[in-house]
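Chapter review. Work through the record for Helix-turn-helix transcriptional regulator before attempting the end-of-chapter questions.
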Amino acid sequence: MNKPQSAISVFNPDLTDCPAVARRIDFVDHKAEVPVHSHRKGQLILTLYGAVTCTADNEIWIVPPHFGVWIPGGVSHSAKATWNAQLIYLFVEPGAAALPEQCCTLSLSPFVREIIARLACERADYAKETHAARLARVTLDELVVMPRQKFNLPVSTHPKIHTMASALVSQPDDRSTLGEWAKRLALSERTMSRLLTRETGLTFGRWRQQLHLIVALRELASGKSVQNVAAELGYDSVNAFITMFKKSVGSTPAQYFAQRRTTPP
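Structure tokens for Helix-turn-helix transcriptional regulator:
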């Protein structure tokens, strides 16, 4: 039995100079881990089902269903997809659209999702003045007006903050206090607090809450129950987890995914 390939091994977007090309990726057929890489074209990662977590620009980005994360060209990035993830990669030629110069998460309208999915059916070397070229133009025109969402977690390159962040990302149920982390890193609690705020723009409590939101969105999108996710994040009760989730996104997990429900093929 052949081992699954990495998702980046099946298509090189820089071999075409078309304004926008799209490819559909089913992670049943590919490795969940996408190694660090970069390309000339900018990339929008759109989820059809499941979720993917990206690391780029010293930040971690979650891409739940019906959202997309935008990564400008030349930015090194990696990704980890849930086992059931179905994605579309949209690659955009530099200068083809007035898209952000920094990584961001975009909330995508049903029309934009559908037209990107339609573009994924076209060849990567389509000619000018063809139907595919017109699809690409409409896609880019619509994409630039999509609203941004905050499904990202700042992760500093500062060695002490990076050490703490790496530990909590791998073990998000760790309930150590800021004072306990400061002691482990040979800092005073006050210095640790100032350093974290300076490096990430967030207090320790807000940073960890954002981490929990990102992990929760990814795990819930993979099909795990609210009860299991709450336990994996170290919450004393399901209600406490739901309260955090609702405070972060404005709805309960059930409401959030019901509003964005997608059916696997």
